[in-house]
Amino acid sequence: MFDSLTDRLTTALRRFSGRGRLSKEDVEAGLREVRVALLEADVNFRVARAFVDRVRERAVGSDVLESLTPGQQIVKIVAEELTALLGGELRKITYAPQPPTVIMLVGLQGSGKTTTAAKLAVAVRRDGHRPLLVAADVRRPAAVQQLEKLGRDINTPVVSPDGKANVPQLCKRSLDEARKLNCDVVIIDTAGRLQMDDALLEELKRIRQTVRVNDTVLVVDSMTGQEAVNVGRGFEDAVGVDGVILTKLDGDARGGAALSMRETIGKPIMYSGTGEKLSDLEPFAPDRMASRILGMGDVLTLVERAQEHVSEKQAQELMERSFAGRLTMDDFVDQLRQVRNLGPIENVLGMMPGGRKLMQQAGNSLPSEQDIGRMEAIVLSMTPQERRHPEVIKGSRRKRIAAGSGTTLADVNRLLKGFDQMQTVFKALGGKPGKGMRGKARMLRQLKGLDTTQLGIG
Predict the structure, then answer these.
(1) Span 198-235, pLDDT tens digits
(2) Residues whose CB is less than 8 angstroms from the CB of residue 4 and which lie 6 or more positions away in sequence, other chains included
(3) What is the pTM of this model?
(4) Distance (Å, rounded) from C-alpha 251 to C-alpha 44?
(5) Torsions phi, psi of 15, nearest 5?
(6) CATH fold of 3-85, please?
């Protein structure tokens, strides 16, 4: 996410770091690089110019240039202005005091509206609400069937046309259905077009005249860059929108749409699509996103994701077994699954401070989805006794495990060797390695000797 923008911005801001004094000329040279980085990221040129002007106005003051750490002060200013550019504060769905809350999704065809409707249903359910989906796209072939299938996948009711194509009346009927099913959020998936036209806009207006819509949310493909901003401006002028959902943000290396949208159309980005799973819709937190863009990580989001998949009690028990040197292969495969649930390893590392630098150093040694799947297959090919006591796995057993998992004997040997080394290091860290420098030196040697490539983890 935003890889090229992050690389360019961190390079530009490096001009300010480690400098005892900065002149106005130094600031201007660095800001020129920042402006170029934004323009290359497909940020609207007026937005890029205004952003740099705001940073310059704050950065050339005597309290910054004459401070002991002027470089850090300027990076702080850039982070704050970037947060403001992205919207300032988190803006989620506004739930009506008298349910149901009605959310109407609008956008062009191909923006991912129907899938986003299902993702949004999962998101509002995480907030403790009960969603109902409305298949109001009666024009695109199989759009209704697609939403019905997604509804079954996430166990959410869907209101579909009953043969008549009166979309506003369908939306009105969905409110009665929501009350019957005790659903307090109605999500309307409207029709899209390859481009904006009068018929599309008129249908959207009639829906809003027929039912009380609490939030009209524009769904746009972030990878279309400035075109996404143009679409946003068109819908805001013609229909009016309350917020934006950016899809495919995980594949957007530039970030032009995300950085331009708020300042251009004056509407906040509410959610971002960060993957293909129906759970991959995240609230768009401007401060966290600014931190990610500047290569500072996003630990809070990473912690929240982890809490969704593992309880504090489980984590504590696992840590205690780790430091006691009592990890089993069952624990190891559980950890693999937890890592997989957090998302691609590149995304996880990208949310950790210094994670991007670690990825660059690791190169191709980071495990892929196939690597993780192969390690899981090896462990699942072991008997329960072998998973509890991997020390009993010798030659003939290793051959059997390799054959059963569809891997090679070398793969099995690497995994077992790496697991054994990991046990040794954890036990040393949890026990009493000795007093004074001799004990510390022994522990450091063990840490240094841990060859993590044996586990396929870089």
Answers:
(1) 788 888 889 988 999 999 999 988 887 778 888 888 88
(2) 40, 41, 253, 254
(3) 0.68
(4) 20
(5) -60, -30
(6) Four Helix Bundle (Hemerythrin (Met), subunit A) (1.20.120)
